[in-house]
Amino acid sequence: MSEFKTEGAELKKLVKLARNKALSFAFCPATDADALFSLHRRKKPAILGKILRKESEQTKVAFGTVTAEGKTLTLACEKLVPGLAKKLKKYFRLQKLSLKVTVLDAGGQEVAG
Asked: How many CB atoms within 10 Å of residue 64?
């Protein structure tokens, strides 16, 4: 398992921290149980993405910054994966965390889906 994989109580703690400042994230959508999501306070998003891609042995990875406001998590992505919002909602449900997910592309425009 990855030292950067974020789940359970640690995930909830970092989501609360994201209410105050933007955190780096990376998400590698493998199968539902094997999906890797990482939030980190200091590491750059591209580095997190590279680490998760290597550990999951997948080719697709999304990374960028995340902020939280209420029950909405806003992802400002440097690199996108198709269906990112839907896959992340499913991952958060598995982690017993109910959040709405909004995905923004590199230009700041909201991405559908």
From this structure: 24
Q: Is 15 helix (H, G, I), strand (E, B) or coil?
A: helix
Structure tokens at 53: 């891609």
φ, ψ dihedrals at 111, nearest 5°: -100, 135
In angstroms, rounded to a whole number, what is the distance separating the alpha carbons of residues 37 and 28? 6
Residue 61 lies in a domain: yes
Question: Among 23-27, 42-46, 47-51, 55-59, whose mean pLDDT is lowest?
Answer: 55-59
Stated pTM of the model: 0.88
Half-sphere exposure of 35 (CA within 13 A, CB side): 22
Q: What integer pLDDT is reported at residue 32 of this predicted model?
A: 64
Query: So what's the pLDDT on residue 31?
Result: 73
N- to C-terminal Cα distance for the chain? Answer: 29
Q: Is residue 110 part of a domain?
A: no
CATH number of the domain to which 30 belongs: 3.50.20
Do 19 and 6 contact (CB within 8 A), yes or no? no
